[in-house]
Amino acid sequence: MKDEKPDFGELEADLADLAEPVAPPPQLKSNIMDAIASGEYPQFAPGEKDSAENVVPLSKARGTRRKFARTAFAAAAAVVLLAGVGIVGTTSGLWGGGENADLAESNTSESVEDGGGDAPEVFSDSEGAGQGANGDELMQGAEAEDHMHSIMAMGDVRSVSLKAEGSTLDVVVSAEMDSGGAMVNGAPELKDGMGAQVWSINKNGAARSAGVIGQDPHDNVWMPLPADTMMVRVTEEPMDGSAAPGGTVLAEGKL
């Protein structure tokens, strides 16, 4: 029984008959063309939209992808740009300073150190060289920029950038170089007879006057600061200066 094979003779004969080609009627093609020309039979199923509306040329698709890529890149560039703008703020570092020191909250009431009763230096754009509040030389322009860059090149440089009512102060200090200062630009817009007094605050919270910024325009005027400055505060004070910070705080930031 196992050696017996089924008889597919009739099935094979039927399959052989099906394999023979069948020629279409001669009139089939003309009938189809006549039906299309008559308009009786729509080319699309009822409710189906014109397929041409759904066709997107490859060139258009590529253009859409390129446009999306350009838009995405522009958005990313805008984010980077906005991040860059955020570098300059009332408390942000300009070139990346060191760790912030813990300062006493009551430093506004500290008396001026090493200043005695002398009137603070009043800075303007036309003074030329002189002596700062802490005895360092006043500089302006290219000389001031060179000195600032030399401090920035130090490994222990600490920095902060401040905006005070129209004036800007880019502050850098280095204990290793035993030097520091603020590059002053612009002019503070304040009440008549008032100036922007700059205070250097050390780690003990003592405030030392670095000078008063007048309301005349400044262009890269170097205001010397002690190398142990841990915070800079700018307050609105009379043009002849105050012995301690007591006016409206215009800006402050830790280095």
Give the secondary structure arrangement, pairings included.
Layout: H1 9-18, H2 28-38, H3 58-85, E1 122-123, E2 139-140, H4 142-152, E3 158-164, E4 167-174, E5 179-186, E6 194-201, E7 207-213, E8 218-224, E9 231-238, E10 249-254
Parallel strand pairs: 1-7
Antiparallel strand pairs: 2-8, 3-4, 4-5, 5-8, 6-7, 6-9, 9-10
Q: Tags for this entry?
A:
255 residues, alpha+beta, five-stranded antiparallel β-sheet, 24% helix, rod-shaped
Give a summary of the structure in a few sentences.
Keywords: Membrane, Transmembrane, Transmembrane helix. Helices cover 24% and strands 25% of the residues. The chain has 255 residues and is α+β, with helices and mostly antiparallel strands.
Description:
- The structure is a single chain.
- It contains 4 helices and 10 strands; from the N terminus they run H-H-H-E-E-H-E-E-E-E-E-E-E-E.
- Strand 3 (158-164) and strand 4 (167-174) form a beta hairpin.
- It has 2 domains: 11-84, no CATH class; 107-254, no CATH class.
- With 255 residues, the protein is of the alpha+beta class.
- Keywords: Membrane, Transmembrane, Transmembrane helix.
- One of its GO terms (cellular component) is plasma membrane.
- The chain crosses the membrane at residues 72-95.
